[in-house]
Model the fold of this input.
Amino acid sequence: MTFSDCWISSVDDEEFKDLIAAQQSAETRRANRLDLMPRCPGSSHYWLPLLKDWAAARDLPVHYVDPLWIEVPVSRALLLQFLEDTYGPDPDAAVKRLRSHVWKSFRDDRNYLIVADEF
Done:
């Protein structure tokens, strides 16, 4: 069986990198980590095609780390748009928490990555 994950990384937002490192070192439950996207909605359980299609529709570059691991560079505004497009206007609590954190804590002058893989 194949599994798929999607998460947020940062190119230059050191505060977010430090938060994620602290969550990982504290062995925070997976469902409570702010960098991980909640389960892929809809009939697809795989993030790669969803993220590739979303990026292609916006002419965003898709960087292949390997054939089953991609990164899409985004701004804070594009990350919020991805959350809206993916989960809709009334998402569950985990997505609301993530959206709120991005809105309040991410910066317009920083660069982020939406990362997806299959394993």
Q: What stands out?
A: The first strand starts at residue 4 and ends at 10. The CA atoms of residues 23 and 114 lie 18 Å apart. Helices lie at 14-25, 47-57, 76-87, 93-105. The chain has a mean pLDDT of 87.
